[in-house]
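dumping this here so i dont lose it
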């Protein structure tokens, strides 16, 4: 039985007293050092775990697309379902259906012909992808569907195509139609569009759908952009090049 006044707490205090001020300081420093070492070990293991998570590769990504590039693109496989068909008019005034592109890989976006933000950036990525495909470009089609209900004319989409060099792509088609036609297509592809007024910016989902030659949706990518201090949208040259290469690699994979 422990005698009164010499319980565990009293014994610890007596031990510190015997060490004296200097010994107590050294012991305290030792405890602090051990705690610091333990924390450093935890931080290292936490960073290692984060790095491992960052390097996890989504199942189904084409082998030609690196994990880092897939991450940059926000690229992910989607359930193989038939891409919703549509019949619209392109920038040449020609009426076409999505189904008419069967036999080729389709890269599909949704664009605003009066956009000054991400749409011009995606346009450059499409042009880069077309050049990266080389002779394989004949097996791919690049198309966009209009999301601006205030600018539905063929002249609007033709002007945008010319301004951003998309006319350099022989298989480029920028489609438009009536507001009701377009709204139905936005809904089928899960594209959200906010158009508060003719003079306000059109806010819309920015997705790139990759559709195989059989008309099946296969992959989805999520384009992004950066902004200057003045709010001007841009992407560093390296990111633009990477995106173009990534689009080309996925289109080539689907066209094989």
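and the seq i came up w/
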């Amino acid at each position: 039985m422990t005698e009164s006044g010499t319980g565990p707490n009293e014994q610890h205090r007596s031990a510190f007293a015997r060490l004296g001020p200097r010994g107590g300081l050294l012991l305290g420093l030792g405890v602090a050092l051990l705690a610091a070492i333990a924390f450093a070990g935890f931080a290292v293991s936490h960073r290692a775990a984060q790095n491992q998570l960052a390097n996890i590769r989504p199942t189904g990504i084409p082998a030609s697309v690196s994990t880092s590039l897939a991450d940059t693109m926000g690229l992910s496989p989607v359930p193989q379902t038939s891409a919703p068909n549509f019949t619209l008019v392109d920038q040449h005034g020609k009426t076409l259906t999505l189904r008419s592109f069967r036999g080729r890989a389709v890269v599909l976006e949704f664009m605003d012909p009066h956009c000054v933000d991400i749409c011009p950036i995606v346009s450059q990525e499409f042009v880069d992808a077309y050049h990266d495909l080389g002779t394989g470009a004949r097996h791919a089609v690049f198309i966009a569907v209009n999301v601006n209900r205030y600018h539905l004319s063929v002249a609007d989409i033709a002007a945008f195509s010319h301004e951003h060099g998309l006319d350099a792509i022989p298989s480029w088609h920028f489609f438009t139609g009536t507001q009701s036609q377009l709204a139905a297509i936005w809904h089928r592809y899960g594209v959200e569009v906010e158009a508060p007024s003719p003079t306000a910016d059109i806010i819309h989902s920015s997705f790139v759908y990759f559709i195989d030659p059989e008309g099946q949706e296969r992959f989805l990518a999520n384009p992004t952009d950066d902004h200057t201090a003045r709010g001007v949208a841009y992407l560093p040259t390296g990111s633009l090049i990477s995106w173009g290469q990534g689009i080309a690699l996925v289109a080539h994979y689907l066209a094989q």
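Residues 8-54 form the longest helix (47 residues).
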